């Protein structure tokens, strides 16, 4: 893994600014370290020399250098303040930028992003959610702690070696020889111990999982009255885990020891060398003190890089996961303008979608013609999608929405009055021109937080009359009447605070208002997915009334239907079936 | 309830559960002090060496100092290595003890806490919280101890040469060792407090976009929502600004204090040399020693933040723990006058509310009773109360010899063999018992296909168990338990209709054959034809809109309810309509 991923700089503007700022502050820090060393040397050196000679100095004799030291103090504090303050801000900005990109890109990937290796559908979705909400936070310690030290190693260390070279070339040679030894030995220790620690880490993970397994099973154990015995086992597992962990640490800390040993020993060698050359008069006291003060500073950034190593691996791993999402290719979309849907005909021609993880094609070979409603009152249609669970009804809905491309076959649109001559493949249509013609109520409708009225209108300008009429159709008016705060009742994200049935009514009301007054023409096609699941008799009646209202207005209603009542309402029933993928076919795909 | 915990501080309440041996802590602190002490020694000796060397004495007079410098330089790395091992050993012992003690406390405490464990990601949090509490040793307590020892030692060293310089060094150390950590901790608190709302919004908006993104695209609302996410993130960044400024101040103090200490030593030392109270060589020691000392306090701001984090983690763990005084003498079960189990006017519910009220029920040998009603009505709560896992809010629960077993919908399958999973029910289950129970629930084919049979590993490390197989495995385990009453929650979940109905029939047949009693909660009604009696739970139609307490709205055999309860008949009819179209 590279210590600074160039993709981070490419993708996050805030990261570029931050690296530039940190580099500038690093240069300033290097300057301050040198100035401070010189100031100390030029006050302490003459004071010791003069004191030894029996003619002690007064403070006034070194006042200018003391002034420099005061200034160094102020600037040093200011640089540290700026670094910390802007690092935190930059980290928050970088995380925000990447979060937005990850979320936007994931949405653009569609309802079933192409499954890549080692990243299964549902698991991948949960991993992306974790990444977007918490995972990216791991970047903050990397940016705030690790990256500055890395840049300091690149800027300050060579600059200080050059300064030492100007003061005392022997010490500079010692630094130049020992500095590369640090990464070299750390690498060697790492290589020699990698296998052993990985084996032990797996043991530790297994032991930890067993403890959590017992804790997770505690409700079950208690139900059986068997909860007391495993306490001893938790303790034994904890001991085993500690012994295994200590074994790993004994090896893992070796690299830290090498780091400390080499750096402090180098400082000691520099100090002894300078001391011995002083006795022989080969170096003066002032440069000797400057070298002594600078020597630990040469190694300090490298030591800190080592200490913050974990922040770096966690942060870079988080960035890596983000880039893995961002680099998944987006599905291609069409560019043609969608034909106007009223009076048109949808032709499904052998439509099939592979359900990757289940070894199924669902739907499979779906072929049918669906004439759409005319758009004028009385000319509407209800089309039911029927089939056992898992047959691909919802998937068919996603295909009709243009969110999913069929793996086999195609969906064609025959515009009204063309007699099938100007047929357009849905795959070639720009979704942005298709979606305004469709209202979609999925199984679990998205509800934005806000007052009940805001949730239903979702930012649209809707008059009280239209709202009341829609609420009457869906029975939401009864719900509102029962709520102490009425339309002002607060609703949480995802509809928390409402029951399942109430949520359904809210979603239907919102769908009724979609494209109502002030929002252009109402979409000619409505797609309802499983509208009667988990509903009682009254709830089902509401759905039937709403579907009838749409048909009466001339619109086309596709319903994914389980129940007899909805099927009875349909003008056309489309049977959706799945087909198992044969072993040969599964391997081929 | 938590007043006691607040008074003593959550960390102090949890720390005894770490069973820390203070001699081990002292050893780690001693090693750490020596390691950093070597660093300070290196700096002081090198300063003396150079200053003395500049006076050009015979080289032999410097030999002790040169050896000292080299020894300090070599020893530090080794000592630091030993210290890190010692402190991690203390922490790991603490975490292991804490996990075990937490398990014991949860196992012995009131069951409501344990039931709460099943919800959400609480369990994963417990694992992380235990680690965070353990980290307090390595990242806070031991560094603080080391900093105190090294700091005081250095002050004494410098003070021995020049008392005033010792005092200024002490002052500067207090700045970095007390003020800077305090500021860092305040900064963390400020970020947490001010950012909490913004962070929750960012999380909510991100999840909404990820989960409902397709709907937002089709509805043309995607750009609005992305803008809302950006705005929420901007608020989150702004909310961290105060914290960032405070931690900036903390960093500035840390960076400036070292130079300040050197400056003070010069300002005090040069006149002292002139006054003859300080030798010139000693001046070098007084001025240059502080350069090495501040490494000891540089870890303390992070330590203070860790202390805060560990305290928050401890607070969450304390909330799981039973109150000391409430430690659980379980009430002796009261025996029913008649039959195996008796509920009399029972109100079932949680700490704050009643979910189901006024339930009467008597179970005799061979009874099969069903609880029906929509999801969320309170069937599970009533079963938990019947099992004695949750105390009734009113009325009485009387259980006969052998007790009642609650079989949870999400019962746990342990990461061990099939046989050991079944032996959770009873330690003396034989292989033949196990095979018989698995066959009774229709898992004999599944067992035959498992490599290793009864010795096959299950759970995360072993064979995958599908939702339906898992349900049946849990029922098989229940059949093996010695309990005379089985309370089975949603046995049909994750099963296709035919298998689900067969499983309920198996349970009923088993009860009638063995003289046990079975209560089945199910939102699916068709299989309930095998029950002697069905209790239909629901909110009475006459209740106001705000009323959420359910009760038994109808009861009787399945056939009776089909005839006399319109809602029940309608719901049952829907199940037939759903299953009627033949699969393609």
Automatic annotation (TrEMBL), chain A:
Cellular compartment(s): Cell membrane
Membrane topology: Multi-pass membrane protein
Annotated ranges, domain ABC transmembrane type-1: 20-314
Transmembrane domains' residue ranges: 21-42, 62-82, 143-165, 171-196, 251-276
SMART domains: AAA
InterPro entries cross-referenced by the UniProt entry: AAA+_ATPase, ABC1_TM_dom, ABC1_TM_sf, ABC_transporter-like_ATP-bd, ABC_transptr_CydD, P-loop_NTPase, Type_1_exporter
Gene (name only): cydD
This protein's record includes keyword Cell membrane: no
Keyword list, A-Z: ATP-binding, Membrane, Nucleotide-binding, Transmembrane, Transmembrane helix
The organism's place on the tree of life at top rank: Bacteria
NCBIfam families: CydD
Designated name of the protein: Thiol reductant ABC exporter subunit CydD
Organism in which the protein naturally occurs: Isoptericola peretonis
Domain ABC transporter per the UniProt entry, residue ranges: 353-589
